[in-house]
Amino acid sequence: MGKWLEVAVACTRENVEAAANVMNEMGSGGVVIDDPALIVNCINQGSIETVAPSFGQTAGSGVVVKGYYPAWPGTNSRLEQLLARLGQLGVTWSTREVHEEDWATAWREYYKPIKVGKRFVIKPSWEEYNPGGDEIIIELDPGMAFGCGTHETTSMCLALLEDELHGGELVYDVGTGSGILSVAAALLGAEKVVAVDIDEVAVRTAAENIQLNNVVDIVTVRQGNLLEGSVKVRADIIVANIIADVIKALAPDASAALKTGGNLIASGIIRDRADEVALALENAGLTCERRMEKGEWVALVCRKV
Ligand SMILES: C[S@@+](CC[C@H](N)C(=O)[O-])C[C@H]1O[C@@H](n2cnc3c(N)ncnc32)[C@H](O)[C@@H]1O
User: Fold this and answer.
1) Which of 13, 80, 86, 136 stands 20 to 30 A from 174 (CA)?
2) Secondary structure percentages of the chain, helix, strand, coil, to 5
3) What is the residue range of 47's domain?
4) What spacing in Å lies between the alpha carbon of 302 and ligand 1's midpoint?
C-alpha cells in the first residue's frame, strides 16, 4: 500500500470551486469538500436526524478542500506548481502524509467480537473466537456498508429477531446494509430470507457476508427500492432498520407483504418521532404490540391482524 500527500486548503465559500478545480487539474483524482454549512442545511431540512453533540463546538465557519497526490519522486515539483496556483487564489493550506492502509484498515483495530441479544456474537472475520454454549456466531466484515452490530438500532433488531423467529419463516430484510440481519435470521432457522438494499455497495458487502456465513442457500440479496419488485410470496417477518421517514413510506407495502399474523420489526426510529411512525403503521393496517428503546432509538414490532 502506498503513501499519499494530503493538501488541505482553507477556503471561503466563494473560492471553493476554483480551489477544487486547481487541485483536480493538478492530478488529485477527486477532492473532499468539508463544509459545516452543508451539514447545518441538512439538519434544518430534517434529512439528518442525529448529530454528535460536539458538532456545534467543532464546526468552524470556513470550508476546507482536500486533495490527494501519490507521494513519489516527482510529486514535489507538481506540489510546487499546485501551491503556486493556490497562492494566486489567496487561500492558505497545510500538507500531511497519509498511508493508504490507515484508511482501509485503521478502524479494524477497534472492532472486536461483541455479544448482542441473548445468543449472538458478532465476530469480525479477521478475529479468532471460540464459541461457548449456545452462542450463535455471525462472521462479519462490514466494509463500507452500515451494520457492524454495535449500533443500537441494529442490536435491537437482533434481539427482536431472536424473540420472533422460531424456524421455517420467510423473512424480508429491507435496507440490509452489511447483511447482518439476514444472516442472523438464517442462523435462527428462517427457511428463506430476501435481502434488499438501494445501495450497490451494501448489496455487494451483504453478498460477501452471506457467503462468509455459509447461508447462500437461504439468503438472496438484490438491489432495489424498499419492497418494490421483491414480493412474490407474503412474509412471516419483515425487518427494516432505516430512518423514520423511510419506515413511514414503507408502511403500506410492508402491511400488504405480510401474512396475517406476520410481524414487521421496524427500527432506526429516533425517539421523538416514534409515535408518528407508530400511527403511520397502524393506519396501514398493522397493530404495534411491542416497543423497545435503546439510547435515542426506538424499535417497534407491529403485527398484521
Ligand atoms: C441503518 S442501515 C441498516 C443496515 C442493517 N440492516 C442493520 O440493521 O445494521 C439502513 C440501510 O437501508 C438502506 N436504504 C435506505 N433507503 C432505502 C430504500 N429506499 N430501499 C432500500 N434500502 C434502503 C441504506 O442503503 C442502508 O444500507
Assistant:
1) 136
2) 35, 30, 30
3) 3-105
4) 19
